[in-house]
Every structure is written in C-alpha cells, then in structure tokens.
Design goal:
The structure holds two protein chains of two kinds. Chain A is α+β, with helices and mostly antiparallel strands. Chain B is of the alpha+beta class. The chains are: A alpha+beta, B alpha+beta. Chain B: It is found in: Mitochondrion.
Chain lengths: ~170, ~400
C-alpha cells in the first residue's frame, strides 16, 4: 500500500514533467502536445496498473499486466469461506462480462460464487487450484489465483476499488 | 465472491457485522469466555453466540479429529427442560409418538413433537428419569415454539387436575456439552467414578464429572460413540477445561458438527424436517412406537398411520456424489430423463469419504438405494446416486 502511494506520487511529479517536456518538444503546439500526452498517460496507466490490484465489493481482486487480467479472491473472502475443498473455474475461451458469475468455491461449511471483476475472454485457468483448492487459502494473492482474462474493456478497472478504498470498505463492513 | 455460510444460510459479511455490533442481542453460553480463549470464530446461531470453528483447525481437520479421537461441542444453546409430576408420562405421550411407558427409568429416546397433521414441530431427545420425571433436550432454533407448545398442552392437562410441572433451564442456569468420538468416553471415565461401560447408547444417569454433579447421557449428533453432559452453568467451564487437559480431546464448532451429522444421516430441523413433513416422509417411521401405533392417540395419528399402511409420495433419502461441487440446500434432484423428482435439504463435502454427501426428498419410485439420478447445481446437472444412510457407519455403544 505504501509502495503504491509512493509510486502514485512519483507518477504525478513525472506527469507534470512530461507535460512541459511535451510542450517543449512540440514547440508550444497544444494539440500535438495533448495527443502525445494522452499517449504517455496511456503507458503510464498500463505501468501503474501493473503494480496495483483492484477489488470488487464481492471481494474478488484483479491485477492487470499487458492487457491480461489475473483474477482471484481476497484474504477476507478466503477467510470467510474457510478451507476451500472444491473449485470450479471458467473454461479457456469463455467470453465473460464484468459481474458475471463465472466460478464457484466450496468449503465444508460455505459456498461462494465467483463474479468476474472485468470483461474479457478467458485465456487461462489455474489448474493447480482445481487439483488442490486449499492453495486459495494458503496464497490467495499469488499461487491461489483463479483465472486470467484478455480484457475487452480495460476502462472497467476504473470502476473498481484500489487497495486503499478496499481496505476502508473492509473496515466499514466490520 | 459472495460467501454463503451453509450453517446459517446467510451472507457471512452481514453476519459478522451482526456478530460484532449486535453482541448484546445474542445470548452467551456458559462457555463464551472459553470460546474466546481458544480462538473460536463466533457467529450468531439461533440467537446464541457460538463458534463455527476454532483457530487451531480447519473444519475438515476438526471433523476428522472427532472421527479419530474426540471433540467437545458446546450445545448449551439447546433447550433443556425438566418435567415432573405423576402425570408427566401420559401428557408427554399425548404430544409425541414415543412409548415412554414401555421405557425403563434412565433410558432415552429420539422423538418428535407432532402437529395435528402429523407434521414435525421439532425433534428432541426425551429421557425417562423416573415415572414422575422427564428430561428433554430440544432445538435452540425452536426454543420459543417448543416452550409454548409444552406450556399450552400441559395447561390443558392441568385443567383436568393432572399433576405436571415444567421447568425450562435458561442458558444462564445450565450448560450442555457433547463429547464425541472414539476416545471421548475413556477420557470422561478418568474424571468420574460413575462406571460408563454399562452406560449404553440412549441411556442416562447422574454422575460427578471433575467433581461437578452432572447428567450424563450416552447420545450425540455425530454418529460416533460419546455422551452429552448437562452441567450447572457456572461449572460448565471447569468440566470442559478438565477434559481439554487430555491431548485426545479438542474443541469443535458448528462447522464440524454439521458435516459430522450429515455423514451420520441425522436430520437438521429446519433443513431436513419441518412442520410440512411427517415422520413417514422423513424416513423416521421407526419413531412411531409399536404400542402407539396400536393406540393411535398421538397428534396426526390418522394421517401417519394411513401413510405407514398406504405409503407416501416422497421420502427422505441420502444422495452421494463421488466428485464435483457439493449439492446444497435447495438443489433440484432430476431423473435421468430430466424431470424434477425432488430436492436437496442439506449437503456438504464429506471430509471422511471424499466427494460429497447430501440428503433430500425424492419421489417414492426413485428412493431405492443406488438409483442413478442427477442433481442440478448452478444450472448444471451432475450425476449422483441415491445412497444408504448413514453414509459413514455409526459407532454407537449398543448393548450386545
């Protein structure tokens, strides 16, 4: 969280630098500067998305790398479920819209449906989780990821909570 | 992901809010402090704060520990009732199909309160303490219903100058713990002079455990050998701690309790039985005692006896799935040609057997063990089979 704030700060500083650099490069041509600024910002966004996780209110997370989103469930969700004994994940090639129910996790005491935080086509599912579902409890943000999507609407991420907002959201739940 | 806790069928996030902010309205059992001390994950269950599990073990680990060694469950939330008076047996037989007259003192039986249509108001364990005294343990979820049912029916008896008085034990007066598993009784024996080798399944007696006067009943809700111990509230913690000194015994919560009872084929009131089903439909026909069938004088007798003679259209059965997602309450059962033939009333993954176990109601013509059917889970049909219950053989300590 601290790291992400530092990165955000750096981003703001360097963006301002980039704006003036763009102006200088384009000799005060505001239109050109705007275009290249947008270009730079796009890469900036990709760069920062790479470092950040986004969360849904239903406790899924998504991390984005080069247009591919990796999806999993949060520590809170994992703890609420208890030891996961069965995982049903979406098949590769499936077209999913954000908010779609696309998988299910079951423990002895609880059942949970997985809803996709973003839209896209499934490129991979975590077969390690299918064969040993308790991986989700052991490592919900790393080895226990559920599936990957090629994002069809990357802008959807803006509707999700970042780490700070999710932490606040969790606090309010209690 | 929305997590539905099967034990309460409510969204866990909301429950936790309730659990933390609404503690005042949930009653604490005499073991509340002990649950906190041992890391119990407390939730509101039927108005009581009880642990789903403890921090030292997952639900499946705790389940298996119970099957292999022994566990203590806090069941203090259940309604304990003492009935006394020379007319207590005729009164009780007027609301249940049990044969208390034919039972010996100190023996217990599972029975049901029935409504006039033969529907099940609650299931309970009644102990014939003596000809003039009964001890009853019934469900916390039916506490108010059971109380008013017993009060109303006994008042009618008292108006006829019959001698019955009822004492409900509040959770502040008496605690109740279930000690279950193959090593349960040997560990209790170390703490009591009462010989337990002749305390058979479904018998009960008074005895001192860890220096505390208790009622010990050989029964349980796990399919294992074990007892339930009724203890004065202020001493419940002392007895529990004394048992926990042994490495053979650990605390277990509602999570393991539910999966253990399901494997044992035992009903959960509100899920598997309710006022809408009769004991015959619930595959509990054996609860209608032989003498009582002859007398035909229990509530709903006409309907129930006709069902015994002529059959019913649906029946409670076990359902077994070797793989796949577990069927939970509400899942539809379908025939192989796709028609809906029943529904699941409770189900979970089976820690002892692997795969999943469930029970539910099915049309009579499909009730035969090993019948291949489908269960619809999240709009997908998965193959399963009608199975014999209990799924895991019971280990009750029965006199041979």
């Amino acid at each position: 969280m601290v790291i992400s704030n530092v990165v955000k700060g750096l981003c703001r500083v360097s963006q301002q630098g980039i704006v003036s650099t763009c102006r200088r490069v384009h000799n005060g041509n505001a239109k050109m500067a705007k275009v290249s600024l947008r270009f730079v910002c796009f890469f900036c966004t990709l760069f920062f998305l790479h470092f950040r996780s986004f969360y849904t209110k239903k406790h899924e997370w998504v991390k984005i790398d080069a247009g591919i989103g990796t999806i999993g469930i949060s520590k809170f969700a994992q703890e609420s479920l208890g030891e996961v004994v069965f995982a049903q994940l979406p098949d590769v090639g499936k077209n999913i819209s954000s908010g779609d129910e696309c998988g299910a996790l079951e423990s002895v005491k609880a059942a949970g449906e997985v809803y996709s935080p973003v839209s896209g086509i499934v490129t991979e599912k975590n077969s390690a989780v299918e064969s040993s579902p308790a991986l989700i409890n052991k490592s919900c943000y790393e080895d226990g990821w559920l599936f990957r999507l090629k994002l069809s609407k990357p802008e959807e991420v803006e509707q999700l909570m970042d780490q700070t907002s999710y932490d606040t959201y969790l606090k309010d739940l209690h | 992901m929305i997590c539905r806790n099967i034990i309460r069928s409510k969204i866990l996030a909301r429950i936790q809010v309730r659990c933390y902010s609404d503690v005042g309205s949930s009653k604490k059992t005499p073991l509340y402090n002990l649950h906190e001390k041992y890391g119990g994950k407390l939730v509101d269950f039927a108005g009581f704060l009880l642990p789903v599990q403890y921090s030292d073990m997952t639900v499946s680990a705790s389940h298996l520990f119970t099957r292999n060694s022994g566990s203590i469950f806090d069941v203090s939330h259940m309604l304990q009732t003492s009935v006394s008076g020379k007319d207590c047996i005729p009164w009780f037989e007027s609301i249940c199909p049990v044969d208390l007259q034919g039972m010996s003192d100190g023996s217990s039986s599972l029975t049901v309160f029935l409504n006039q249509k033969g529907g099940i108001i609650d299931d309970l364990i009644v102990t014939r303490v003596s000809e003039k005294q009964l001890y009853i343990v019934s469900n916390a979820g039916r506490l108010d219903v059971d109380k008013s049912h017993m009060i109303e029916t006994s008042e009618m008896y008292r108006k006829k100058n019959k001698d019955i008085s009822i004492d409900f034990f509040d959770v502040t007066q008496r605690g109740l713990i279930a000690v279950q598993g193959p090593k349960a009784v040997q560990n209790i024996q170390r703490l009591t002079d009462t010989p337990l080798e002749n305390l058979y399944f479904m018998t009960s007696r008074l005895g001192s455990v860890a220096g505390v006067d208790c009622r010990i009943t050989r029964c349980g809700y796990t399919g294992e050998d074990g007892v339930e111990i009724s203890i004065p509230a202020e001493k419940t913690e002392r007895v529990t701690e004394a048992l926990l000194l042994s490495d053979d015994i650990k605390l277990a919560g509602l999570g393991a309790r539910d999966s253990l009872r399901l494997e044992a084929g035992l009903c959960l009131y509100g899920n598997d039985i309710d006022e809408g089903v009769t004991p015959v439909e619930a595959n509990l026909t054996w609860l209608i005692a032989k003498r009582r069938r002859g007398e035909a004088n229990f509530p709903g007798a006409e309907i129930i006896l006709r069902q015994i003679k002529e059959g019913v259209t649906k029946r409670r059965v076990g359902v077994r799935m070797e793989t796949g997602a577990p069927a939970r309450k509400g899942a539809l059962l379908k025939s192989l040609n796709g028609e809906v033939i029943g529904n699941v009333t409770s189900g979970c993954p089976s820690p002892s057997l692997g795969g999943n176990v469930a029970m539910g109601y099915i049309l009579e013509q499909f009730k035969k063990v090993s019948t291949e059917i489908n269960v619809n889970i999240r709009n997908k049909d998965s193959p399963c089979k009608v199975a014999k219950m209990p799924f895991v053989p019971s280990k009750y300590y029965v006199k041979k």
